[in-house]
Amino acid sequence: MRGNADGIAEDLRQRVEAGEWSGGARLPTERDLAAEYGVARNTVRRAFDRLEQDGMLSRKVGRGTYLVQQPTEGIAAIIRRMEGTSPADMMEVRLLLEPAAAAFAATNASASALGAIAQAHQRAIAATDMPDFEAWDAEFHHQIFSCTRNDLLREFHEVLRFLRDQPRWFEMKQRTFSEERRRLYCVEHGKILEALNARHPEQAAAAMRAHLVSVQRNLLGRPE
Prior knowledge:
The protein is mainly alpha-helical. The chain has eleven helices and two strands; from the N terminus they run αααββαααααααα. The chain folds into two domains: 5-67, Winged helix-like DNA-binding domain superfamily/Winged helix DNA-binding domain (Arc Repressor Mutant, subunit A, Orthogonal Bundle); 75-220, Four Helix Bundle (Hemerythrin (Met), subunit A), CATH 1.20.120. α6 packs antiparallel against α7 (130-146) and α10 packs antiparallel against α11.
């Protein structure tokens, strides 16, 4: 055991980080910790002083010493953790969100928004290499989310776009890319666009799901 105030403060910090106490929990008393560490109570008190100065502890007269309840982490920290998302998990989430987005788009898209989707589709058809196709493929899906008139759904897609731009994803798509698959995806995009132009939400959702199942199968080798 560390027998000075700095050492005890660091040890207590490590115990908190390991989950021994959390969420505003009350810590053991100075007397109990002094006995545990084999030091005088004023040594534990100085360790508490250091942790209180760091904003980690709160002392309540007559009630004891408590961990400060930390605020919920921000969205940036959550996204940082999501950077390691597996391709399998990504495809499962896409299969949940994108058919719904296509259905919303079939109902809500303006004529100009449908034109932007069609333009991305035509650019993907005309692409002559994998990076060019991938850029217009991503734009096709982005434009569909853009005309859903659902702000939260659009923002979820922005997170997915960020994750799909990671090198791991690009390398996987590069390994599985072929001209045959590019043509297949363009045909599938065409069916999605046809359903959108016809204002058929159920058909748009079904066409999107069929397309994503193809992508899933080609990327991950999963059967339909």
